[in-house]
Amino acid sequence: GGKGGATDVSGGGDSDATFTARREESRRRRALKKKGVLLPHIPAYHIEALIDSFHALRRGDPPFTPTAPALAAGAPGLHTIVSLMVRHFADVRIVNPDIRDAMLQSISVLLQYKEYVGVFEANPEARRSMVPALLKSFDSRFWIPVSNILLRLCRGVGFGQGGGGRAWASSGLAAAAAAATGEAAAAAAGGGGPGEGGGEGEGEAAAAGNPSGWMEDRRDAAAAAASPDATLARAIAAPHPDSASPLFQHLIVDTCRSHPKVLAAFLDRLFNTLNWTITEFSVAMKEMMDVAGRRAASDTRQHQRKCTVMFELSVTLERVLEFLALEIPAAFLNSDSLALRRLTESLLFVLGHTTVGPDAVLFDQTLKAQLAPLEKVARAPILAPIAGIVLNLDEAEERATAASVGGVGGNGGGSGGDCSGGGDSCGGGGGSGVSPSQVRPSDSICTELASSSCDLSQLDFLCDFEWAAHFTAGDVSLARLGRLRDFVSRVKTARAAIELQRETEYARDIPEEFIDPILQTVMNDPVVLPGSGQVVDRETIKRHLLCDGTDPFSRSPLTESMLRPAVDLRTRIEAWRENAPEPAAADDAAGK
Predict the structure, then answer these.
(1) 80 near 126, Cβ under 8 Å?
(2) Are 125 and 153 in a shared domain?
(3) Could you read off the pLDDT of 82-94 as tens digits, one per residue?
(4) Which residue in 438, 419, 436 sits closest to 480, CA to CA?
(5) Domain for residue 423, yes or no?
(6) Which residues pair with 528 in a beta bridge?
(7) Quick one: 237 and 295 in the same domain?
């Protein structure tokens, strides 16, 4: 009876003894793990009992917390349990997905508290493997706990969250994060871990900021230093405003830079999931409107819960995208990526359902009728990340342009005041910025919005929204509203220029070979499909390959690496565009 034992613990058993027993159980799991094949044969209830017992202790009376000096010194198994969950929540040898889900949910719950954030930061296994495993685990089964974990680690840097982007960078925590990352690499190289000779200096960088609280007690500090979990005390002393983690923010960025294929797959699933949650949110609103006043209050509450959950999940996914747009703009602005187009489509899908237009009517009615809790379902939470995303990418493009003009190779310049933290994301030298060679005029969030079929009144709504009424006083995001208005003005100007160009092209006779056979538009980057010999636009076939790995004409296997550029055809298309007549001449030709 694993779960029954866990219940007894919270009722008043010996917490220290029980926790020590669970520590030994965790060590036994690690020993079995080294045997490899033995792990699948461990009964699931062993791990269930371990997790349940830990949470029973955490919720007990008095609760077990890592801030208690006696327990920090006397129960070094906390790192062992954290290591077990971090190492195995993505372990394919665990055939029961509910066990993996329980581990992810446990991590998500713990990361709500700054004390436990310090524990994860001080744990070498968490620093080494948690972020890559989270990105790979974002799938149809585990995307909810994974997105919640990412949000908790990255909060505080978004539009309207007080920090305005990079508040922590100026506080010296960025240096601490970099130092801690170095410790993680050293720990991985040495193979050590907490309680296993993992090293005396672990966590010192994270603790550099604030030797306060119980750490001021010299006797307790000495006791903690004598234990295998001495690093726990140093990690908890570091400031973790709002439970965010600069260290893990740094590790997320570093992982995405180092593993572009993992990032691309993660973004693909993220876009798909955001579109799905917004669709489900709309369905939930419709159902809630239909049952309001016609059924029992319990039925209405059920639909309210679904509506609220889908809304909050959508906001969570948007915030994750906003963090990536802030720290890794090159992931969207790289000319070889479809990410910018898909990001733009997702943002417009959200705007269409929450601002103005026929799809936004349900949202308006829901807010006016107060059918959902207004403190949870409102416009500000879902629109703020969109404003942050477009501003982050627009500022990144400006820095890349300034670097190109100044000849500094992406390592300086920039827009200045809007990117207060400096660091990698402000320059580009560290890899999170955008190199001028990666960006072409079409790789612009402004150009993407202008060339889309979006209703420009939705962008006006974003600008004119009463942000000040929803942000705390002094929020630095309010200072970026002027740039947001300027951005929307540039989108309108670009829209007019693009429409004029399209009118000019359509007024001429377009050679058949210039037209994409799938979308029936003039191609920008034609490529030859080796299986069928057909020529299509590169973006068209890349989008097709996201869901089907075959040639759409011959059904033969096809990958992006097999595409052959049609260089001569592209040259002729570009020459045809350059020789386009002036608009007045085009109108005369069309009249004839």
Answers:
(1) no
(2) yes
(3) 888 999 899 887 8
(4) 419
(5) no
(6) 535, 564
(7) no
